[in-house]
Amino acid sequence: MAEVIWTEPALQELDAIAEYIALDNPAAARHVVERVFETTERLEDFPHSGRIPPELPDSVYREIVTPPCRIFYREDERRVLILYVLREERQLRAYMLESR
């Protein structure tokens, strides 16, 4: 059983996504956050259940998709580190180039 650990950037981005959704629909924002946490809980027992991101075919990173979010993580023997949450419609490569 792996321990799921959320990084600060992942939590901040999930919070930003929820705030944006809450502008129009607070209940929907709450539901998205609940679904994301429920989905990532399964990584405790099934850390390989996510896919390798199509943009990073030779990567050690994995992702799970819980619309409207892509949740990126990396796992080792004891931990699953939730590294980043990205809105589904954003392209990962474009985001990576922006941050450089």
Describe this structure in words.
This protein starts with a strand and ends with a helix. The radius of gyration is 13 Å and the shape is globular. Strand 2 (62-66) and strand 3 (69-75) form a beta hairpin. By secondary structure, it is of the alpha+beta class. Helices cover 38% and strands 25% of the residues. It has helices at residues 8-22, 26-41, 92-98, and strands at 3-6, 62-66, 69-75, 79-87. It has a four-stranded mixed β-sheet. It has a single domain (3-98), classed as YaeB-like fold, CATH 3.30.2310.
List the keywords:
100 residues; alpha+beta; YaeB-like fold; 4-stranded mixed beta sheet; toxin-antitoxin system; Plasmid stabilization system protein ParE; TA_system_RelE-like_toxin
Would you spell out the secondary-structure blueprint of this structure?
Blueprint: E1 3-6, H1 8-22, H2 26-41, E2 62-66, E3 69-75, E4 79-87, H3 92-98
Parallel strand pairs: 1-4
Antiparallel strand pairs: 2-3, 3-4
Describe this structure in a few short sentences.
It holds the Pfam family ParE_toxin. The protein has about 100 residues and is an alpha+beta fold.
The general outline is: globular
**How far apart are the first and last residues' alpha carbons, in Å?**
35 Å
CATH superfamily: RelE-like
What is the name of the CATH class?
Alpha Beta
* Main structural class: alpha+beta
Most strands sheet:
4 strands, mixed
Q: Give the helix proportion (percent range).
A: 25-40%
How many individual helices?
3
Order of helices and strands: EHHEEEH
Pfam family, one: ParE_toxin
InterPro entries: RelE/ParE_toxin, RelE/ParE_toxin_dom_sf, TA_system_RelE-like_toxin
Keywords: Toxin-antitoxin system
Protein name: Plasmid stabilization system protein ParE
